Amino acid sequence: MADATCSIDGCLRAVSCRGMCNPHYQRWYSDGGREVARRAPARRETESCSIEGCGKPFHCKGLCRAHYRAAYHASNRERLLPAMKDASRRHYVANREKVLIGTRARQKAEPERHRRYARERYRADPAKHAAAKAARRARNPERYRASDAAYARRHPDIMALKVRRRRARKLENGVYQITERDRRRALARHDRCCAYCHEPLGAKFDWDHIVPLARGGHHAIGNLAAACGACNRSKHALTITEWRMRQRRRRGLPAA
Q1: Is residue 79 part of a domain?
Q2: Three-state SS across the chain?
Q3: Does some domain include residue 12?
Q4: Considering the domain boundaries, does residue 21 fall inside one?
Q5: Per residue in 115-163, pLDDT tens?
Q6: Which residue range is the domain that position 178 belongs to?
């Protein structure tokens, strides 16, 4: 009996009761014992996905296969997530090089999308990502030191801003976000020249706090000016008025 198959034509499932498999027996019982014919699922090849803009063929519940799968995963996320993570981890371990090549290719093709995704993941749980980054740095200190040095050589102005931001945080002067657009506008304000001596800026230049951090100035784009190294070192912790007066005294000119 264990090897017998369902008596309904085309069904190869094992017999459960009255010569039928369990699904056909349940259908026979629900229909009051009437004759049961094997019903093939209706296919509607001419219909398309109900999601606007998706022209893929209908699969189930008015959705194409991809949208149905996404909806199913969204509604069963908590139940499916552990198994999905485990499968993803095993796939990564078994195909690490292939996965990394594919990831780099996608990042190169759509850089802004991947930056936005990374920012969203970080904002969702910043403490978790900070801990993971610290753990990676602890495991590979030499690699990260070399990477940091290479980044500093490529972006000296950004590194200068990072140093000043860290100092402002230590002094608790107030630190505000400075975007790439803010930096471009600040440079264009003086036609990419030093804000003090008006000499053209090269690849390396400094960001000066107009009101120095030592005097309570904020780390914000409104308090920053692009300056050449000589002017920035000369001004140091002076206000613009004090610095200009000292420059005039050094040249033997009367105070304005």
Answers
A1: no
A2: CCCCECCCCCCCCECCECCECHHHHHHHHHCCCCCCCCCCCCCCCCCECCCCCCCCECCECCECHHHHHHHHHHHCHHHHHHHHHHHHHHHHHHCHHHHHHHHHHHHHHCHHHHHHHHHHHHHHCHHHHHHHHHHHHHHCHHHHHHHHHHHHHHCHHHHHHHHHHHHHHHHCCCECCCCHHHHHHHHHHCCCECCCCCCECCCCCEEEECCCHHHCCCECHHHEEEECHHHHHHHCCCCHHHHHHHHHHHCCCCCC
A3: yes
A4: yes
A5: 899 889 889 998 999 999 899 999 999 999 999 899 888 888 888 888 8
A6: 155-250
